[in-house]
Each structure stands twice: as structure tokens, then as C-alpha cells.
Amino acid sequence: MDLKRATVLFISFLLFNQITIFSQNRVIGYIKDAQAGSAVEFAQAALMQPSDSSLITGGLSDARGRFEIQTSNSGELILRLSYIGYEELYQTIEVSSGTNRLGEINLAPAVTELGEVQITAAAALFRSEADRRIYNVENITIAEGGTAVQLLETLPSIQVDEEGSISMRGSGNILIYINGRPTNLSSDDTESILEQFPANAIKEVELITNPSARYDAEGVGGIINIILREQRLQGMNGQFNLSLGTGNKYTAGTNLNMRQNRWNHFLSYSYQYRELWEENDTWRETSLPGYSPIVDQDYYTENFNHSHLVRVGTEYEINDNSSVRAYSSINARGRDRERIYNIRNLSAPNMLDSMYTRLLEEDQSRVNYEFGAGYNFNNGNGQILNLNASAAWDSQDRIEYFTQNYFIGDLGGEISEVPEKFEDQFYERPLTSRMMVFEADYEQNIGSALKMETGLKATLRNDDRSQSFGWRHEVSEPYQERILNGIPVNNQFIRDENIYGAFLILSNNNNNENGTNRFSYMAGLRAELSEIKTFQESGLRSGFLNDDTFIPAVDTSTTNHYFDLFPSIFLSYEISPNQDIQANYSRRIRRPGVGAMMPFLNAQDFYNLRLGNPYLEAAYTNNYELNYIRAWERYMVTGSIFHRHTTNGITRLFVPFEQGTMVTWTNAATTNSTGFELINYFTLNSNFDATLTGNYFYSMVEGQLEGSEYKNESYSWNLNLLTNMNIPGWFRTQLSTSYWGPRVIPQGEIKPVFSMNIGLRRNVLNNQGTISLNVSDVFNSRRFTLETNDGNVYQKRDFTRESQVATISFTWRFRNFREQQERTGPNGIDGDIDGLF
User: Fold this and answer.
1) Contact partners, residue 834, CB within 8 Å, separation at least 6
2) Left if phi > 0, otherwise alpha if psi is -120 to 50, otherwise beta: which for 591?
3) Per DSSP, what are the bridge partners of residue 252?
4) Does 570 lie in the same domain as 534?
5) Are the beta carbons of 136 and 154 closer than 8 angstroms?
6) Mean pLDDT in the chain?
7) Residue 236 and residue 99 share a domain
8) Which of 496, 683, 685, 714 is least surrounded by CB atoms within 10 angstroms?
9) Does residue 608 fall inside a structural domain?
10) Any bridge partners for residue 399, and if so which?
């Protein structure tokens, strides 16, 4: 399918879906302050059953105090209105077919005299919906002043490994979204993209462990959707933030919003400067003939990172039912890096034979531009249409310089330099990427119980990467190319990936005799057509290292087309009020990323090579989940049993060669992962709550690589505890501890990891400012150890990043519109959630 045909289908879809089919009942009203007569924003409006006061549905009031609730129920219902600082209101209403307008409803301010007592009750950390868990992270103190990656590390179910790869419930290949859109042009660079977003800019994080057909089929381990802060309050409002961290870490930024009549404009800017160090120690032993018996290697790195992130946008409300939106962002970042390598070859008695020292100096700059526009239509009767289009460009300049010295040892333990083996090297890796996304989603109620959702999406990507490497013995000499077994290190790889998707979802709620919804389902089917084209200047693959006759393919092009169907089904049964059981299934795909496909030899360290496989195929996974949710007044428990079966899985393997080892990727694996997750949320009172999350899972991976079979299995577990304690009149404290159990890989395991974070927060300046202090990795225990053993080669790698950091942050909020519309409670605390802490 070409772009022209996709465009025709896209337009036809939009025209077809403008037809209204059926409608729901609407309840519309305006909530006002009984004394001041001003609108009450963010008040909760809920409809309940008169028989047992069970919740039917609800919503929030907007800047005008207007709320709108859609329901299939009719007849006599109870309307409940509530907001902090106001008395709760219950009112019996009669809901008839169509639109029910209630007019203005007044809420009376609470009359309780609180004196100097400060309200510091914390909002619940998370809430659960049919296909996701949504975390309120605005008040995660332990991540303030940090980045999006550091924020994700604090959340239950999420782990970030030594290379920045993100996993959920022990499974990798996570799809990351920002505001419902792909985060970057290449999933291989997720960490560096997320590092550009300050934790203070994030409002919520959605964990979609088993995505429905509504979402891209990519992402075997699930989807993490990061929702950034945006205000829609009347008038000029915003906030400024500043943070200082140990080890030269600085962040400054602002979020501004201007809403007037039907226009809403927003602007955000953040600057970050962060210095980070890394340490790596590798010990390798082998008995293979012709190999160095022992290689002892270490390196120390210092990174100097800086970035500017600007986001700007505007939204216009055409009428009460529709709006248009346009936005853009610029992300400019740079990194200077210094690294010292020490590579020692030892004889069997641990005597030094030879040694390399390498000094790396790197200069990297990267810029990303994104532009987008959208249209939203919601007639209030269940008919919703969303149209979105975006385009992004990314480019990188990256060059590294190496100074390498060679030494030999003697029997007496002395070492001497060999001047003729001195090398001066350069290593350049530019890249350019482009991505365009076109998307249309449509929802429509069919009758009083059935809902239909459908949509089309086209994602068009292009990645162009290359590398050049040169070396010389004297700085006055011209650079020469590096040839390894007849293969040049210089290379180019281009990949075009076009994915066209469409989905259809039907969901239903059946009412029992009492009118409460007990059983519901959501069944969907997604179809995706994939077209992947690649070009490689020098086709490198495993096998050439020990084959002097290996000849690379030159200027090779490949094209793959495949069509797949991805069903999903979600079943939910309400056992009783506040007690539900859910079962769901989905089929997912993992397409190989650019990093795993590009046939480049990584020239940073010729003792630890990396080599992509441009012939990797897609892997497929069947995901099963069974969930149980039970809530009491002060305690909630969520239990999940999950199973993932992957065929044709993409796995990382270590292949030995004469100098060291090479990491490569293959499709030789079948993976099974079965586990249990238990989340306990407990609140003692308004001053203390705790969330304890535990995961226990079994992993098995097996496969074959070039005639050699492998199989590995293990049991592992993760624990995460997050507590909030308020000391009235002083501050709020937050503590997070996590334990990440051993993880299985095809030829070994990753050892357990433990860490603890602690944070304090206090409001100042009449609750317009907040000052916080946090310390990450209090015991400096966040270290990664990777052990591999294939019978011939044993390797142990210890990796440590700077993780023990103390950060102090200050945030100042201003809301000019409140000078005309005071809504503070009797204790003087702003009713908006930002004012609670």
C-alpha cells in the first residue's frame, strides 16, 4: 500500500464517520460558589443509583464550572457534587432521554474552622481502568529535579537497567509514548530522549501492561504513556522551577499558560546541565586455543550533558463540541564525554602479557524538531472524532577521538611501552531520521449498551546512519581505514519502515435488574501492514571474525512486506461494589529496531564488539492476564497473573573471537514468562499512605545459534515500597525502596539490584512555592553485575553509574486569574491539587 492509497482511505474514513448513529443521555450543569457566585473548577460530579448509592459514572467541572455526564441510565438518579473546601451536595434528579440541563447549582463553602492546621492529604498514587494503571506523579518528591528516566525508576512494575533499557514486569520491548504519541524517531535511543524531559514537567504516567487493539501492536512488554503538564485554567498562569544537584547537576524551566475565551496557549522551556560518571569492570576467562586466557578490562567515563527543550502550542475551541490544536517542539542537546580504557591480557598464572590504554574524547550534538496538529469533535452524545498529524526530524553529529598506547610485560612484572604501536584514531557517527504519523480515531454509541471504536493510522519512518573510522601511528600521517578480517569498519545503513494500521473495537455493558453494570467486555481486532526496506554498504554478520575468506555483501538492499492481525479481548465482572475481576488477551509484535539491525562494528572498544543483524525478523507474543481488584475504605489490593509466550524472539548473544567477545542479535529464541503481581495500597489517615508492589515471575529462553543449542531458565522477583508521610506544619516525606531480583539471559544472568530514595517537601510563600530535598540511592547500592558462561568463555561485567545524588528544588506557581476568582478553602490553601503540597 503506497502513501497515495493510504491518503484516499484516510479521507474516505473521515467522511464516512461523520454520520451520527445513536446517542446517550446527557446531564449538563454549572457549579457555582454559593457566596461569591464564581465558577468552581475541578469539582467532582457523579451519578449514583438511588437503591444502593453505587457509582454509575461521573466527571469534572471545567474553567466555567460546567460539567457534562454521559450515561445510558434514565429515570430517578442521585447527583453528588463535591470539592475540597465545600460542603458535599446530594440532589435527586430525573434523567430523561436526550439532553438534561440542570442550570446553575450552588456549593456552600465548608464552615469548619481549621485555624493553622494545614491540609496535606495526599491523592492516591494510582487508579486502575479497564486496560491500564494511571499513576499520579505530580507529587513524587523523590524524583524532583531529576529526569523522566529517574521518575520511571521510582514507579512500581518498572525497571531501568545498566544500559538505560526499560522493562515492565521483567519484560523488555516497551513502547514509550509522550502525550499518546511515539517519543522518538528510534526506539534504540529511548533513554537519551527521556533524559531531556524534567520530572517536574510530567503530570501522569500510564502503564498499559496488555494493550488493546486501539494501540500500535508494537511493544511486547506493554506501553508507557507519559502525560506532560498542561493547564487549561482561565487567565495567565504558570510555574517556574529550579533545582541543584550534587556533582554539578542543574535544571531550570517554566510552564506558562494563557487561556482567554475560546483560546488556550501554552509554552514550556527547560534547560538541563548534568555531569555523570560511569565505571565498568570486565573479567573474561577462556580455555579456547589461540585466545588470551584472561582479559581484565576497566574504563571510567565522565559525561557532560546539556539540553534545551521548548514546547509551544495553541488550542481553539470552535464550539462546545469541537476544537483544533497545533503544537511544536525543539529539543537541542549536546554531550561531551571523556573515557579512559585499560585493557590487560593476562597469562594463566595472572601475569601481565600486554596492555592497551585508550583515552576517548567525544563531542556530540543532536537536534530534534516536531510539529503537529489535531482536530477533536465530541457532540456529547457518544460520537467522538479525533484527527492528528505530526512530523519530526532528527539529526546528530557525533565524533570521537582516541589516543591509544600499547605496553608489554616481562617475567619480572615490569611493563614497557611499544612506541611503534601508538595509534591516533577518530570515530564519526552521524545520523538523520524522519517520521510522519497520520491518525484518525472515531467512537460511536450504538444503542444504549454497545459502543464502537475504529481508527486508521500510518507511521512512516526513515533512518540513515553511517560511521567512519580512521587511524594513524603519527599525527603527521594521513588516516587509514580499519580492516578487520577483510571487512571495513566504515559503513552505512538506511532503513525505511512504513506501517499502516486499522482497528475495530466493540464494547458492551449489560445492566442487571437493579440497573448496575456487572459484566462488560471489549473485543477488538487490529490489522497492520508492514513494509521495511534496508540498504547496507557492507553487509557484516557473525562468522567473519574467524573466517579469513569471508567476503561482505556490498551495496545490498532488502525489502520485506508482511500483513498481520492482532486480536484483543477484555472481560470484566463486578463481583460486588468495589470488587472486580478482569481477564484479557492480546497478540503483540516486536519488530527489530535500528540498533539491532545495523551491521556496524562498534569501534569504541575492539575487545567488546557489537554487531547488528539486518536480516532479523519480527517476533510475536501472546499476552494473557487475569486481574482481581478489591477496595475498602483505607485499603486496596490488585492482583494479576500474567503469561507471555514469544516465538521467533529477538535475543542478544555473546560470541567469542580471538581478542574478546562480540554481542550480536538473532531470532533463535523462544521465550516464556509467567508471573504474579500484587499491589497493596494502604492509607492510615490523611498523613500516611503506602504502596507495596511485588512481582514474582518465571522466565525461560531457549534457541539455537549456528548449530549450538542453548537454554536457560530462572525464577525472579521484584519488590517496590513507596510511602508518603505528612508531618503537619513541617513537611511531607517520601521513601522509596526497590529490589530487582536476578534476571535470566540466554547464556547467564544479571545479579540482583537494590536501591533506596528519600525526599522531603514543604510549601512556602503562602502555598505559591514549594521547596523539596531528595537523595537518590541513599546507600549507593545501585550496581549491575552481568555473568555469562557458554562452557568455553566465562565473563563477569560490573557496571556502575553515578546514582547517589542529593538534589534541592524550588517551584513557584502564579495564577493571576485568582485575583478575580478566589476559591481558597478556609485554611487559605488553594483548591487546585498543586496547592496541596
Assistant:
1) 138, 239, 813
2) beta
3) 242, 271
4) yes
5) no
6) 80
7) no
8) 685
9) yes
10) 363, 428
Same domain, 65 and 131: no
Look-up of cell digits 497493596: 680
Q: Quick check: is 165 in a domain?
A: no
Pairing mode, strands 688-705 and 415-417:
unpaired
In this predicted structure, what is the pLDDT of residue 449? 79
User: Which tops the pLDDT comparison, 281 or 448?
Assistant: 281
10 with 131, same domain: the answer is no
Number of domains in the chain: 2
Q: Which domain holds residue 18?
A: 3-107
Give pLDDT, residue 24: 62
Q: How many CB atoms lie within 10 A of CB 787?
A: 17
Per-residue confidence (pLDDT) for residue 636, from 0 to 100: 84
The answer to whether position 219 is within a domain reads: no
Cβ contact 728:699 at 8 Å: no
Among 50-59, 500-509, 693-702, 780-789, the least confident range = 50-59
Model confidence pLDDT, tens digit, residues 574-622 = 888 778 899 999 999 988 888 888 888 888 877 777 888 888 889 999 9
Do the Cβ atoms of 66 and 81 come closer than 8 Å?
A: no
Q: Helix or strand or coil: residue 3?
A: helix
- Residue 160's nearest CA partner among 807, 782, 734 is 782
Q: What pLDDT digit, counting tens, does each position of 128-150 carry?
A: 665 677 887 776 777 777 777 77
pTM for this prediction: 0.75
The single-letter code of the amino acid at 769 is G
CA atoms within 13 A on the CB side of 169: 25
The answer to whether residues 429 and 520 belong to one domain is yes
Residue 160 falls within a domain, yes or no? Answer: no
Please state, in angstroms and rounded to a whole number, the distance separating the CA atoms of residues 164 and 149. Answer: 8
| DSSP secondary structure string for all residues of 244-305 | EETTTEEEEEEEEEEEETTEEEEEEEEEEEEEEEEEEEEEEEE--TTS-SEEEEEEEEEEEE
131/34 same-domain check: no
